[in-house]
Amino acid sequence: MNILAMDTSNRALSVAVLSDDRILAEKTTDVNKNHSTTLLPAIDQILKDSHLTSDQIDRFVVAQGPGSYTGLRIGVTTAKTFAFTLHKELVGVSSLASLAGNIRHTNALLVPLFDARRDNVFTGVYQRDDHGQLTNVVSDKHVPVAALIAQLKMLNEDIIFIGTDVAHFAERFRAAFGQQAHFADDEANLPHASELGLLGAQKEAVKDIHAFIPHYLRRTQAENDWLKTHSDKGHQPYVEEV
């Protein structure tokens, strides 16, 4: 099965093509550019590097969130468009699970995170089982850093924090966990679409491509403000989901 995987959930952009579990090509950049202008050229390039065309891709895998609202919408919309127009499979994978998947050969808790501002983070807790498979210990969520620390203290295990945003909180983690706190290296802190593709290969394809939406895990401030003045609308979205 040929897989094209893309992650636009945060600042870094990563795109990869795999044939089953073999990586044919991968491109990851960590520059502050608009994914709306860089994603399609990156896809075009790795398809050329893989000697494949888009209609030879069997499954499109996309980072479904959490992460940047704009980045997620770009990636999800692009993957949906490819899958729908080419009549191919579509799979969404947690952006956090993909980041956790960068770490292998350990039984420590894997804690990927993204800075969600105002001393909050998007995070989840993962761990490798006895067979090396990535398992979800605590579901992805939007949470205050203090609450994350309290929950991890209850688990009382070695922890590997993963992600470029970890640096914002590293001193607090060291103070809270001492020698139990470990930190991924620069390479593992970046998303790798090849890992996203490997995880996506293990999942079932979505049944309804049109109904597939990002997992934001929180509303935008604009939506919160709108709901305050439109309480009669219930939970109707402020903007149409992609």
TrEMBL record:
Which superkingdom? Bacteria
What's a single GO BP term from this record? tRNA threonylcarbamoyladenosine modification
Lineage, please?
Bacteria, Bacillati, Bacillota, Bacilli, Lactobacillales
Name this protein carries in UniProt: Gcp-like domain-containing protein
Which organism is this protein's natural source?
Answer: Lactobacillus selangorensis
A GO cellular component entry from the record: cytosol
Q: Which residues form the Gcp-like domain?
A: 31-226
| UniProt-listed InterPro entries | ATPase_NBD, Gcp-like_dom, T6A_TsaB
The protein's matches in Pfam families, at most eight in alphabetical order, are given as: TsaD (PF00814)
